[in-house]
Design a protein that fits this description.
The chain is mostly helical. Strand 1 and strand 2 form a beta hairpin. Helix 3 crosses helix 6, helix 4 crosses helix 5 and helix 8 packs antiparallel against helix 9. The longest helix is centred in the N-terminal third of the chain and has 49 residues.
């Protein structure tokens, strides 16, 4: 569950190269605006962002005083702050889903253990799947984990447009942010942004029990790796988006880990104490039935003689004695 909850978000992020690759694979100073679908995307998203950046930069001295870099940071912080309530709500829902999974885990482990038995038939597999659905249904939850990809999909056109706004504007792409050329990739911004997302991942792991942290480490490293990739291979203007966004993400994750998650666990523990989970399966559900006790059958029972063997023998001896007397 903890791994699958990130795959949909990853698939959304994987769409970014479709926008960026059509523009260029180079982090050059300036590129020629695209045509076709990506040209339409540039006209709808990229150009308005260019005009917005020029307007904001005018308040900070324009390109001569790092104005365009400041404009990118302001746009990034505005987008992130607008999305922050939605992000926190998604994190809250994901945490509640994880806590419900934790409560139901003993029952689910029993069913999954049965599924791993050798020689299991298709009918038995279907029956076990139905039992697993009952565990979720009767406890008011779902087999499908809560995904936190909506905010990522909302941001997709924003940072794709920012890349285009920098790459296709001679004025912006040739400007600098404290000596860093916005039209070229920057190792300094790449390392700083990657470290922010690495710190966010480390804080995120603290929200999981120690037993689960090791298996979550791979998925936790996904964000830093993707951040490094995008910042390294695309212009520093896009890198600034990840750098400024990383600050908000770090604060958001600290709120989730140290405030929201403990409160949810405390509330759910109280609810479970008052209303324990519905038990669909337990450790005895799949126990083999005990064989019936074996009964000893005498020869007389097989021949239909209801009398005990010693009594029948005495009766035969008595009959012989009467025969001799006669």
């Amino acid at each position: 569950m903890h791994k699958s909850k990130r795959w949909l978000a990853l698939s959304g992020v994987a769409l970014i190269p479709l926008f960026l690759a059509a523009c260029s694979r180079q982090a050059s100073t300036q590129l020629k605006p695209p045509t076709g679908f990506f040209g339409a995307f540039y006209n709808v998203i990229g150009k308005p962002l260019q005009h917005l950046m020029v307007w904001i930069a005018g308040f900070f001295g324009g390109s001569t005083a790092s104005g365009f870099g400041i404009a990118i940071i302001i746009i990034t912080l505005a987008v992130r702050l607008i999305l922050l309530p939605l992000m926190l709500n998604q994190q809250k829902n994901m945490t509640e889903s994880q806590e419900k999974q934790r409560v139901l885990k003993p029952q689910l482990d029993i069913i999954q253990k049965q599924m791993k038995k050798p020689g299991i038939t298709q009918e038995e597999t279907l029956r076990l799947n139905a039992m697993m659905q009952d565990v979720y249904k009767k406890n008011g939850t779902s087999m499908i984990p809560s995904m936190g990809c909506l905010t990522m999909l909302i941001q997709l056109p924003i940072f794709s447009g920012l890349y285009q706004a920098v790459a296709y504007s001679p004025e912006i792409s040739s400007s600098k942010f404290f000596g860093i050329a916005l039209g070229q990739s920057s190792m300094l911004i790449t390392i700083a942004a990657t470290l922010l997302y690495f710190a966010q991942s480390m804080i995120m792991l603290q929200a999981y029990p120690k037993a689960q942290r090791k298996q979550m480490q791979t998925s936790a490293m996904l964000n830093p790796i993707m951040t490094f990739f995008f910042c390294m291979f695309y212009n520093a203007g896009l890198g600034l988006y990840f750098l400024a966004g990383g600050i908000i993400v770090l604060i958001q994750q600290a709120i989730v880990t140290y405030v929201i998650t403990p409160n949810i666990r405390k509330r759910m523990d109280a609810e479970i104490a008052e209303n324990p989970p519905v038990i669909v399966v337990d450790e005895h559900t799949f126990d083999e039935p005990e064989p019936e006790a074996e009964t000893t059958t005498t020869v007389d029972e097989l021949t239909g003689n209801d009398q005990p063997a010693p009594t029948a023998k005495r009766n035969r001896n008595a009959g012989k004695q009467r025969h001799h007397k006669d």
